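Hi there,

I know you've been waiting on this one. I reran it after we fixed the sequence typo, so this is the corrected version. Both the input and the resulting structure follow.
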Amino acid sequence: MNIAISGASGKTGFRIAEEAVKKGLKVRQIIRKNSVVGAGLENIETIRVSLDNKKELDKSLENIDTLVIATGARASLDLTGPAKVDALGVYRQLQSCKRVGVKRVILVSSLCTGKLFHPLNLFGLILIWKKIGENYIRNSSLDWTIIRPGGLKESEDIKLERIEYSKEDTQIKGSIPRRLVAKCCIDSLNNKESINKIIEVTSSPDNKKISFKKAMQMI
């Protein structure tokens, strides 16, 4: 399987690339032209693009089976960032997928997406624009999966962490290491029961251990 990861220079995107390489997948990183990619990954293709350049974006997705969208606006003084990245950026990537024939898309979104009264919306209504980006995917003709993680943690100590999987709009708080979010993305690649589902994920040592496959049968 050939997998492309947009936003692969980010903290979550880079971990998704690492997990994909571990599974023996052929990985293509799609990053912005001024982004810096973390070191350590070998035999991985990197393409730098501008999301508003159709030709560049289309070329970056040629011969790709699945696109994982890990792009996301960061909190900044530019309050237009979420609209540009989480809505318009997602839309442009989906249109490119349709033009070049990519059939499967996985989006990393956020817990509480769509909620208006939330502290994160102080940064350019980020959760509202994420919802719009999600809707673009849900209304597309592609096979899609949306992963909504809770607060993202940098910890790599995940041995005792147990993921709580749930359907959309059922979790409103909690956190999860970025590494586990990356694993969720890769787990969804070969699981047909994750197609056309929104999956909310948080983690805690207190959760009951459950496999991704079984969780998809319950959601």
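Quick highlight: Residues 81-100 form the longest helix (20 residues).

Best,
R. S.
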